[in-house]
Amino acid sequence: MLNISTNKLTGKVTFAEFKSLDMTIPASESRKRVKILLWIFLVLLLFMFLPWTQTIRSKGMVNALRQDQRPQTIQTMIAGRIEGWYVAEGDYVQRGDTLMLISEIKDDYFDPQLLERTMKQVEAKTLSASSYGERVKAQEAQMEALRANAILRREQAENRLRMTELRVISDSIRFEQAKVNFEVGQDQLERARRLYEEGLRSLTDFETRQLRFQEVQANLIAAENTLLSSQNERIAASIELNAVDNDYRDRLARTQADMFSAMSSQFDAEASATKLENQFSNYSVRSGMRYILAPQDGYIARALQVGIGETVKEGMEILSIMPANATLAVEMYVDPIDLPLVRHGNKVRFIFDGWPAIVFSGWPQISNGTFGGIVVAIDKFTGPNNKYRVVVAQDPEEVPWPDGLQIGSAADGIALLQDVPLWYEIWRQLNGFPADYYTQDERRNMKVNK
After folding, report:
1. Which InterPro entries does its entry note (predicted)?
2. What is the pLDDT confidence band of residue 391, given thresholds at 50, 70 and 90?
3. Does residue 446 have a pLDDT over 50?
4. pLDDT band for position 439 (50/70/90)?
């Protein structure tokens, strides 16, 4: 049986009657099958060590990368009535083109000459402010004249006061002289009376002395009267000097009051003119808002308001526009468990609807019909679907995206992670483990740091 003995039973004994024993004898076909199975096992074993790229699959939608290039609606800035349309759906428009015309429905703006009349009010208020300004200048000139006049009048009053003071001094000297003359005359009259009584002088001489004495007495009274008059003039001059100061202050106060009143009126007129200018500017801007203009180059997608004569409210949406030459990107949504695996700069492959593709998710190098992208933005919070939004832009190092790709097209995204052996990926999938978070370079750096 083991071919050890030299006595061969082969050919002498047949085992055809023993079916089970006959099946255990190897045949040439069986050996071929074993060899094939061994080679298949060896190939599968080698296949298990092939590199496999871990991926995250997610659905997305094509959108514009920049927010100013995404589809937008055009609203009316003012309420009005539709008077005419200048575009139709599907038309290409440039920035600043007139889309439609609306008319005013508020009675405050019905006047067709509103701007002209408002400008006339502005000019009138401006002239009023200018006239008040000239009045202020006149009051200032009047105050300067009052100051110069007050200086001269004060000098005149001071001179008059000085003259009266000198006159008082002079009259007082004369009064003292008159008193001395009076005393001398009184002594002379007494001596003349004694000589007359003694008979040494005649009556005529005595009477002549009496007459002279009366003249001296009259001179004394006149000198005293003159002195008192001079003193009164000095007091009047002092009062006049104070009156000059008081009159100057009174006139200056009245002039300043008139000037401040004119300044107040000037400021009120300037404020009113500024308010009217602001109102004129608002009217000018509002008149331009009657023409709805295109905010940027693009295509008219849909008219949300139709007809002629319809009334639109302030801020109502009337048109939607699709910007032209938008830089495309894909918004894809990933589960929170996969978010830590997605980073800025990660590579992503896309399958766009309408473009056939042959995809091997583990071997993106041999896939055909996919387009490359790179992660540029990741939201920090979940959306309404409890997933995180990831924005992927076109990869400049890859084949450009199709020219016919439009905003709103669906896209199937495949985020490429790190490369692992195939047997590891099968083991991970069977156990339900997430993809590896750290790349090979990061693991190597962590080991070096340790």
Report:
1. Single_hybrid_motif (IPR011053), UPF0194_transport (IPR050465)
2. very high
3. no
4. very low
Q: Is 413 helix (H, G, I), strand (E, B) or coil?
A: strand
Q: What is the pLDDT of residue 443?
A: 46
**Which residues are paired to 92 by β-bridges?**
299
Q: Judge whether 261 lies within some domain.
A: yes
pTM (two decimals): 0.56
User: Smallest Cα–Cα separation from 289: which of 113, 116, 74?
Assistant: 74
pLDDT value of residue 343: 82
Q: How far apart are CA 63 and CA 74, in angstroms?
A: 19
Per-residue tokens: 441: 């370079």
- Shared domain for 253 and 308, answered yes or no, is no
Rounded distance between C-alpha atoms, residue 264 and residue 127, angstroms = 15
Shared-domain flag, residues 135 and 276: yes
Is 107 within a domain? no
Range of the domain at 260: 114-288
DSSP state string for 72-83: EEEE-SS-EEEE
Q: How far is CA 321 from CA 25, 71, 88, 298, in A?
A: 82, 6, 11, 6
Q: Compute the Cα dihedral for 165, 171, 175, 180 and give only its sign.
A: positive
| Residues 170-203: tens digit of each pLDDT | 888 888 888 888 888 888 778 778 887 777 777 7
The answer to whether position 47 is within a domain reads no
Residue 4 phi, psi (nearest 5): -90, -40
H/E element holding 326? none
Which of these ranges, 51-55, 108-112, 212-216, 268-272, has the smallest mean pLDDT?
51-55
pLDDT of residue 278: 92
Residues 316 and 284 in one domain: no
| Over residues 137-148, mean pLDDT | 88
Q: In the 8-state DSSP scheme, what is residue 436?
A: P
Reference 395, options 321, 450, 345, 323; nearest CA is: 345
Contact 49, 392 (CB under 8 A): no
Do residue 174 and residue 132 come from a single domain? yes
Residues 253, 330, single domain; the answer is no
Q: Do 124 and 217 belong together in one domain?
A: yes
Structural domain total, the chain:
3
User: Are 133 and 205 contained in the same domain?
Assistant: yes
What totals of helices (H) and strands (E) does the chain contain, helices first? 6, 14
Q: Is 2 part of a structural domain of the chain? A: no
Check whether residue 274 and residue 354 sit in a common domain: no
Tokens of 413: 């995204």
User: How buried is 317 (Cβ within 10 angstroms: 0-12 exposed, 13-18 middle, 19+ buried)?
Assistant: middle
Q: Name the more confident of 31 and 46.
A: 46
Per-residue DSSP letter, 403 = T
